[in-house]
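[Q] Does anyone have a clean structure-token version of this?
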Amino acid sequence: MFENQNQWSSTMPPPDRNIPYPVRQMGDPGLKHCINQMTYIWLKNGNEFWFYPTFVGRQTMLGFRWRRMGWTRDRVNIKNIRSFQCF
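[A] Here you go.
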């Protein structure tokens, strides 16, 4: 799944600087439609960030998260997601 992380992360541009407003999208079925799409995530703890999901399972979403220095691979527990919006 992350075989070419260095190549992928160096070629993927940074996300849009415009942060979307939260929407009421929730749940695993909707997340599956966001695979390989830029997605903004709002967590229940108040954190929010850009994510590029590559896999959505029953409990975990895998992909790449935007941080100050660029894209890094990461996983998100689906139970912790308050809402999301994919583009």
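[Q] Thanks! Anything notable?
[A] The beta strands are 39-43, 48-56, 60-67, 70-77, 81-86.
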